[in-house]
Amino acid sequence: MGIDSIPYGRQNIDDSDIEAVVSVLKADYLTQGPKISEFEEAFARYVGARYAIAVNNATAGLHLGVIALGLKKGERIITSPITFAASANCARYVGAEVWFADIDPNTYLLSLEKTRELLESKPKGFFKGLIPVDFAGLPVNMEEFRKLADEFDLWIIEDACHAPGGDFTDSSGNKQMCGNANYADIGVFSFHPVKHIACGEGGMITTNSKALYKKLSTLRTHGITKENMTENHGGWYYEMQELGFNYRLTDIQAALGITQLKKNPEGVIRRNEIATRYKKAFQGKIKYQALPPNSYNAHHLFVIEVEKRAEIYEYLRMNKIYVQIHYIPVHRLPYFKKIGYSDAELSDSENYYERCLSLPMYPSLSQKEQDYVIDKVLTFVEH
Q1: Domain range for 61
Q2: Which of 35, 95, 276, 334 lies in disulfide reach of 254, CB 3.0 to 4.6 Å?
Q3: Are 346 and 329 in contact (CB under 8 A)?
């Protein structure tokens, strides 16, 4: 068929992206310039949040998020085991403990029921926060998690790294974009090349709290500020008022992010067209991620479950289809096993991991390429 290699994800860079980057390279600021605030304002408008803070990657965003919300050494948070390690690592960076609640076996999202069970198994105050993950682009119902969080006095960080452009409809009939921070305290997004918006590396934090916005903005830049200073010796003067980090995004990356963001609505539509074709081909033959009512999946990934996962993984790669596994459960990673998570009872996550496979999913995937992928998957499964 003349098919080249097909990855599971791929960035889409066109002339408008290149021109935007070149224009910054020819301008006065390569970093800490006007493109940062332009990107932040555009992104906040897109997801419907009041504030957005650009950072150098989503891991930095998660790290700053837990600090801004006051997470301390020895305290505990709950997240999903089916996620990239950063969703849990952010708590470990401040010396906090990570507890995992199991996933829903059909949506692959953090289970509301299992999270409630875990919360009710401990005294109130034992946990400090929740980090639900919009896995594969499917939105967590943040309204339901907010009710649960309020009941147990918890904050929420929504890990929306997979889901810019995804949404759910709340009980009032209002569409809630992933990461808009209407129900979570903070949202975090990723701009890694295989994500919807490619900046090379990069991330965004969203919030509707002015206090959190100011805290996050200061932490992003070494804890240095020119606002509310205790002294002032002139226009050059600044103060480092707390221990922060150099988690800044550059203007080069922000310029790329601005043009990428403009294409995301169309890109998410295309991702859903691809998902619809996969579902039509696999209906009744292969299990795939369920779509709850009133939800719109942004489809960073299209995940299926198959028997003989290792064999089909190798078969597809031999046929130049470079599928991937998302994810090894976090509690099974050597670091977490070493610190006491080896006996975690998370059967739905374990069962999912033994069968999961991420198929190619990106806007530039052609129909010919997708047909080839579908044919090879069905050939293996059926024969």
Answers
A1: 6-382
A2: 35
A3: yes
